[in-house]
Design goal:
The chain has 18 helices and three strands. It has 491 residues and is mostly helical. It is found in: Membrane.
């Protein structure tokens, strides 16, 4: 059992700004990291590359799978309020704190690789807008550096400006994508078909490979948990934010994926993934120049919002783990005196974003470099969800609030599905390199394999290290709660 003791978090000097975020702001803060319009520009390309006109089925299934995964943060958010999100949930789930370091390390891999979505994604999108821009070979570097600076400065200035911005623009983005998709579907007329929703058994392995990008489309739905120390009444409002962000993400992406499929044309869908900014082509075809311009504006804003939300989330997870003396330097738990942001964690993330994204951009180009990194990102976040699922079952059993469906059956089932997605992703990427050896295919396979080694093997080793060598730190990790109550195990 747990008992409550007084907090030793260090007083208000190192506390985030409380009462800064409400339910709807939290919802669109999460949705900002999903980045629906930006998904159309980069992640959906990976899905179309793998399963073609069945991409809408892949996205629909991914949304349903993510719905299962959202049970864990939804249930945990009613019990715990910690900026560490999944990491803090996992750390506090057992007496030894075993799953905390593993979850933090797995999430770290996702943190480092997923920045490519915003940084290289916007660079690729802008770089491919016209042949004149594309002719300037390294212009994307300027876009990438500008993006990194922007998504670091805004979070540095505090959470309030960030969530206000993402709330207003996020709602407009979702409404635009939904309405535009319906118009395109109507305009297509007889070109509409039920075929994209069919799934022959023969393509199941490739279908599961496409899941790594389809699931990544929805990555971020649960990050409102990372601002739970800054939300008013977090144990009531975070769960509502999670539900709203999940529903709006489906509203934005599922109709849009189908609209892109039939708008491009089912028979010619093979050319979708290789085209420059294919989503823009479809929108301009059916909505004219105004529709194309609006998509460009919302896509750019989507990347900007995603980057801001990502930096906020990452810096708060690092802040929480650092506060617990897990993996990160203690300095990462320092909060800016004026802006109440984890400024040192933000600066460290900015430097790492710069190095990783420029390296992969130079090696593979911004578009392919982003997709390679996002393959690893998908592996990292899936393992993070698996650890969190296990932790929910363990935590609720010890607290005697266990419900067999939401705390047992669903977490176990969703973890099995997650393991299947990982297996097929790694298998298909390795087979692609064996059958068609190339530098790019080798990079995709390596990204997936390294993701498994990092997020599973190394993560478990690190957890054993903390439990055996630093048991006091491991036991206390993740026990801080937003109501200034620290939780520890009874002897």
């Amino acid at each position: 059992m747990f008992k409550k003791t007084s907090s030793d978090s260090g007083g208000t000097r190192n506390e985030l700004k409380k009462g800064s975020v409400g339910t709807w702001q939290g919802a669109f803060y999460s949705l900002a990291q999903v980045g629906p319009a930006a998904d159309i520009a980069i992640l959906l390309i990976g899905t179309f590359r793998d399963v073609g006109f069945r991409s809408v089925t892949a996205v629909l299934v991914a949304w349903l799978i993510y719905g299962l995964w959202m049970i864990t943060p939804y249930e945990f958010s009613k019990l715990r309020s910690n900026a560490g999100g999944y990491y803090a949930y996992a750390a506090a789930s057992t007496k030894s704190g075993f799953y905390g370091p593993a979850t933090a390390f797995s999430w770290l891999y996702e943190n480092l690789t997923s920045s490519a979505f915003a940084v290289l994604g916007i660079s690729s999108f802008l770089f491919l807008l016209s042949s004149e821009i594309s002719s300037l070979k390294y212009l994307w570097v300027i876009f990438a550096i500008g993006m990194i600076v922007y998504v670091s400065v805004i979070p540095y200035l505090g959470i309030r400006p960030s969530v206000q911005y993402t709330f207003i623009t996020g709602f407009a983005e979702v409404m635009f994508l939904f309405v535009a998709s319906i118009i395109i579907i109507i305009e297509v007329g007889p070109g509409n078909s039920f075929v994209p929703f069919t799934l022959p058994f023969s393509i199941v392995p490739v279908f599961f490979l496409s899941m790594i990008f389809s699931i990544s489309d929805f990555t971020g739905i649960g990050i409102s948990t990372t601002i739970s120390e800054e939300v008013t009444e977090p144990k009531k409002k975070i769960k509502n934010s999670l539900l709203l962000s999940y529903l709006f993400s489906g509203l934005a992406l599922i109709p849009a994926t189908y609209a892109l499929t039939v708008g491009w044309g089912i028979s010619g869908i093979g050319g979708f993934a290789s085209a420059n900014d294919p989503g823009l082509i479809v929108f301009e075809r059916y909505l004219g120049p105004i529709g194309g311009i609006l998509l460009v504006i919302f896509t750019i804003n989507s990347y900007l919002s995603n980057g801001v939300a990502k930096t906020n989330a990452v810096s708060r997870v690092w802040f929480s783990a650092s506060r617990d003396k897990i993996i990160f330097p203690k300095s990462f738990s320092e909060v800016h005196k004026k802006y109440k942001s984890p400024h040192k964690a933000i600066r460290a993330y900015m430097i790492l974003m710069l190095v990783i994204n420029l390296l992969f951009g130079f090696l593979f180009g911004p578009k392919t470099g982003a997709l390679i990194l996002l393959t690893g990102s998908g592996i990292g976040i899936i393992f993070t969800h698996i650890y969190a699922n296990i932790s929910l079952t363990l935590y609720t059993r010890t607290q005697k609030v266990f419900k067999w469906l939401v705390h047992g059956l669903i977490p176990i089932a969703s973890s099995i599905i997650a393991a299947v997605v990982i297996f097929y992703t790694v298998q298909q990427d390795i087979l692609a390199q064996i059958s068609t050896p190339s530098f790019d295919n080798f990079a995709y396979a390596s990204s997936a394999v390294v993701g498994v080694i990092w997020s599973f093997i190394f993560a478990i080793i690190i957890s054993f290290y903390y439990v055996r060598k630093k048991p006091k730190i491991a036991t206390e990790a993740g026990t801080y709660d937003a109501d200034h109550i620290k939780i520890s195990w009874e002897k």
